[in-house]
Amino acid sequence: MRRRPLLVAMIGVIAMTIVPLMPGQALAQTARAATRSPEIRQVQQALKAKGQDPGPIDGALGPRTRAALKAYQKAEKLPETGEVEAETLARLGLPSGKLRPSPARVRDVQQALTDLGLDPGPIDGQMGPRTRAALQKYAAPPAPSPASAIVERFTAEFGRPQSP
User: Under a CB-based contact definition with an 8 Å cutoff, are residues 100 and 158 in contact?
Assistant: First the structure.
């Protein structure tokens, strides 16, 4: 099962704004690049407006943005995760429904699930019910605990998939 670590890394990229990945400089650089998005830019702008210092408003969920998130979460008496979560977004006045994994990230995970013999449905970049079921099947015991945590938090954060 040499591909299982690859799948865990891909799932981690999808859930980057939800669950931090394993330490490592190369992985951290990849993660920062993968998390550049307009939604993170909005989070950074909102944090700055609330008196926090997220660093440059660049759409990257880097260490300064995470530190600003933790500081804001502490001030708001929220769990200090340093992650972009629904309650934090609500307190910042931002919609949580916009945080969706990119189609490219979903396709990568769908391909990895297919390679493992799981059935995520078509490799179309849509987080549909078959993809979610394949992720849950992958995360079922004896899957590594980081994958289970990612699936649980992903489901809690994004809810049920929407039909195209």
Answer: yes
Write out pLDDT tens, residues 79-104: 998 888 888 888 998 887 655 666 77
**How far does Cα 52 stand from its chain's mean position?**
22
Residue with tokens 């759409």: 59
Q: How far apart are CA 146 and CA 111, in angstroms?
A: 20
Indicate yes or no: pTM above 0.70: no
Give the separation between CA 72 and CA 92, rounded to whole angstroms: 9
d(CA 136, CA 81): 23
Residues 6+ apart with CB under 8 A from 97: none
Can you tell me the distance from the alpha carbon of 97 to that of 52, in angstroms, rounded to the nearest whole number? 23
Q: Distance between CA 72 and CA 119 in Å, rounded?
A: 40
Q: Which of the four CATH numbers 3.90.330.10, 3.40.640.10, 1.10.101.10, 1.10.10.10 does domain 33-92 have?
A: 1.10.101.10
Which structure tokens are listed for 99?
């945080």
